[in-house]
Automatic annotation (TrEMBL):
<feature type="domain" description="UDP-N-acetylglucosamine 2-epimerase">
    <location>
        <begin position="42"/>
        <end position="303"/>
    </location>
</feature>
<protein>
    <recommendedName>
        <fullName>UDP-N-acetylglucosamine 2-epimerase (non-hydrolyzing)</fullName>
        <ecNumber>5.1.3.14</ecNumber>
    </recommendedName>
</protein>
<comment type="similarity">
    <text>Belongs to the UDP-N-acetylglucosamine 2-epimerase family.</text>
</comment>
<keyword id="KW-0413">Isomerase</keyword>
<dbReference type="InterPro" id="IPR003331">
    <property type="entry name" value="UDP_GlcNAc_Epimerase_2_dom"/>
</dbReference>
<dbReference type="InterPro" id="IPR029767">
    <property type="entry name" value="WecB-like"/>
</dbReference>
<dbReference type="Pfam" id="PF02350">
    <property type="entry name" value="Epimerase_2"/>
</dbReference>
Length: 376
């Protein structure tokens, strides 16, 4: 179901005693919550409703669609909010409160520390609706780094009833008592349909090469495109993927002949999510894609774009002539970090933990007979 300007109509009879709203306001949040929605549907004991919202709700709606999970509710805004955090929060707050009143869910799930997650958690708390926090806990020692995500994450931690972490926190971690390690749910998203991209992602996660992802659309970014062959020569352990309008330009021809480069005109969003997450650095003239990259774990370089740096920001806005120098600096400090193979059960663990919270199963741990390893 999609909600436009009118108030929400009643959704079909759920056939379940409990329902959970999975609230996303950005691409990184969709990348973590879409597999969770699929896990809830497969278990069929709790109804999960995906909510596309945020400053640009239609892009979130499209992201859910691209990852194979349609948005059940799309909370459109009457006008785009100004970029200031207070304006975004004020715009989202009443709209999300209307959704909670109309749907009256059993719980609300949010991911990370984005503004949408913070607002949704606050509104749910005011309505006395339990909050489930995916990727909860303290990420850094500095409240202002990254800004404002770290502070938002800690605020949500004060409001949440269930804390789902990627890995088990150390004793004494400032996370709530109901803390359950579930793993990284993003790994359960569809792998790239292009087999060459799928193999590249697997090789990157196995420990090498390092991937430089380059998305260029504007003619004034041609200088960046022309500098990529030299980057390949200087950095023998990298591979480059170029996509966007400039991929069809003659300046991309030398890359077509290079064994460590791949050039494509268009990139499906489902594949783009996996490639961004696997990249050592993203270079793009698309401000929205660059803004999403840190949430997927990747530093980004914005070519000739407006960007106001914040504490802990991993986005750098660079004029075209200096882009390659900046990319080499990032590569010099970013080593290859092998990622342990995923068992593909992270999203299923999330569903199990929520089912336990509702008393639908005896253990919060998938496949465990009792919650002996979890504080309650």
């Amino acid at each position: 179901m999609t909600e436009f300007e009118a108030s929400l109509e009643a959704l079909p009879d759920p056939g379940h005693d409990h329902d959970v709203l999975l609230v996303a306001g950005s691409l990184p949040e969709v990348a973590r919550l879409a597999p969770v929605a699929t896990a809830f549907a497969e278990a069929d004991r709790i109804r999960a409703l995906t909510v596309a919202t945020g400053p640009d709700p239609m892009s979130v709606h499209e992201a859910f669609e691209a990852l194979g999970v349609p948005a059940d509710v799309t909370v459109l805004l009457r006008e785009p909010p100004p970029p200031q955090p207070a304006a975004v929060a004020a715009t989202l707050m009443t709209r999300l409160d209307d959704v909670l009143v109309d749907l009256d869910p059993s719980a609300v799930m949010v991911y990370g520390g984005g503004m949408t997650a913070a607002v949704a958690a606050q509104v749910a708390f005011w309505r006395q609706i339990p909050v489930v926090h995916l990727q909860s806990g303290v990420a850094t020692d500095d409240l202002l780094c990254p800004f404002p995500q770290e502070a938002n994450r800690r605020i949500i931690g004060q409001l949440a009833s269930l804390f789902l972490v990627a890995a088990q926190s150390e004793t004494g971690s400032p996370v709530g008592p109901n803390t359950i390690a579930v793993g990284e749910t993003m790994t359960a998203n569809p792998q790239p349909a292009d087999l060459s991209f799928a193999r590249l992602v697997r090789r990157v996660w196995a420990g090498g090469p390092r991937l430089v992802l380059v998305g260029l659309d504007r003619a004034d970014s041609l200088g960046v495109l022309a500098g990529l062959p030299d980057l390949l020569q200087r950095e023998p352990d990298i591979e480059i993927v170029v996509f966007g309008e400039l991929a069809g330009h003659g300046a991309a021809y030398p890359l077509l002949q290079h064994e460590r480069a791949r050039v494509v005109r268009s990139m499906p969003l489902a594949e783009l999510v996996q490639l961004v997450a696997a990249s050592a650095v993203l270079v793009s003239d698309d401000p929205e894609l660059v803004a999403d990259a840190p949430g997927l774990g990747t530093p980004a370089v914005l070519v000739d774009g407006p960007h106001v740096p914040q504490p802990g920001d991993s986005i750098r806005s660079i004029l075209s002539p200096a882009v390659m120098t900046t990319v080499r600096q990032i590569l010099a400090t970013a080593g290859i970090t092998p990622v342990a193979p995923s068992d593909g059960l992270a999203a299923a663990r999330v569903e199990q933990a929520v089912a336990w919270m509702f008393g639908l199963c005896p253990s919060p741990l998938l496949g465990s007979p009792s919650p002996t390893n979890t504080q309650v």
